[in-house]
Amino acid sequence: QVQLVEAGGGLVQAGGSLTLSCLASGRTFSTLNMAWFRQAPGKEREFVSCIKSSGNIDYADSLKGRFTTTRDNAKNTVYLQMNSLKLEDTAVYYCAATGSSMPPWEYRSTYKYAYWGQGTQVTVSS
Fold first, then answer.
1. CA dihedral for 19, 121, 71, 56, sign (positive or negative)
2. Rounded distance between C-alpha atoms, residue 50 and residue 70, angstroms
3. Residue 104: how many CB atoms within 10 A of its CB?
4. Average pLDDT over residues 74-89
5. Strand (E) positions, 57-103?
6. Are the C-beta atoms of residues 110 and 37 closer than 8 Å to each other?
7. For 4-19, what is each residue's pLDDT tens digit?
8. Most buried pick, 1, 28, 52, 102, via CB within 10 A?
9. Confidence at residue 44, expressed as pLDDT on a 0 to 100 scale
């Protein structure tokens, strides 16, 4: 089993920045493919980014250039740095993990991740 604990959410003004972290335990972190998803009120959970065990990174097209995902295998932690935040970035942000390898496009699917964190709220105010 893999346990994931997100941190770093909060209230931020539009245009500001916030960095989320996700601490993983229960399995060798370097072997995990990690991802961030988010879910706004009344909407489906959507893909934000993923960073594979290989270090390859993918982003949702709409977020490229504003969001950056990194990982620190020594700290068992994945990060999501969010810049130039917009009102529409308000959501609960979830960290997810899978030990499986799959075609690149499948990393964007919520169904492909076996492990999830509890989520952290990010609220962007005007």
1. negative
2. 9
3. 10
4. 97
5. 57-59, 67-72, 77-82, 91-98
6. yes
7. 999 999 999 999 999 9
8. 52
9. 97
